[in-house]
Design goal:
Length: about 140
C-alpha cells in the first residue's frame, strides 16, 4: 500500500507492517500507482509535489533490495510486464522497454496519455484512448 512518502507492506503471517521510505525529496510525495512484477518487486509511480502547486514531477521507481532505482521521470505513465520480466512503459508519446536496469525507446505513439498491456502471446498493446497499436518485440 502506498501513501505519502513511503510504501507500506503488510505481512499477514507475521502480523506486522514494513515501511519502505522513498528517496529524499524537498516536499511531499504521493503514490499514484503500484505494480508488482513476476518476482513480487514493487514498481511505483510517485507524484512529487512542487513549490507553487501540488504537481512538481512524476517519477517511476522500482525497489532493488532496500534501494529505490529511478526508471523514468516524466508525465503520468502506464507500465506492464511480459513473461520474461521485461518492463514496458508508455508516456508522453513514447514507448519504452526496460530490462536489467537499462531503459530504451521502443516506439512512438500520438497523444500524451496512454495505457499499455502485454498479452499471453507477448504482444505489447498500447492505446492513447482513441487508437490502438501493438508491438511484436
Amino acid at each position: 500500500m502506498g501513501g505519502f512518502d513511503a510504501l507500506l507492506m503488510y505481512d499477514p503471517d507475521a502480523g506486522y507492517w514494513t515501511r519502505y521510505p522513498l528517496p529524499s525529496w524537498d516536499r511531499r510525495q504521493l503514490f499514484t500507482d503500484i505494480i508488482l512484477d513476476q518476482s513480487g518487486t514493487p514498481w511505483i509511480e510517485v507524484m512529487q509535489y512542487g513549490g507553487a502547486g501540488p504537481l512538481g514531477a512524476m517519477v517511476r521507481y522500482h525497489l532493488m533490495g532496500d534501494e529505490w532505482l529511478k526508471d523514468y521521470e516524466g508525465w503520468f505513465s502506464s507500465l506492464a510486464f511480459d513473461e520474461q520480466g521485461v518492463a514496458w512503459l508508455c508516456s508522453e508519446e513514447s514507448i519504452y522497454r526496460s530490462e536489467y536496469g537499462k531503459i530504451e525507446a521502443a516506439g512512438e505513439i500520438s497523444g500524451s496519455e496512454c495505457e499499455i498491456v502485454v498479452d499471453g502471446s507477448e504482444r505489447v498493446w498500447v492505446t492513447n484512448y482513441a487508437e490502438l497499436w501493438w508491438l511484436d518485440p
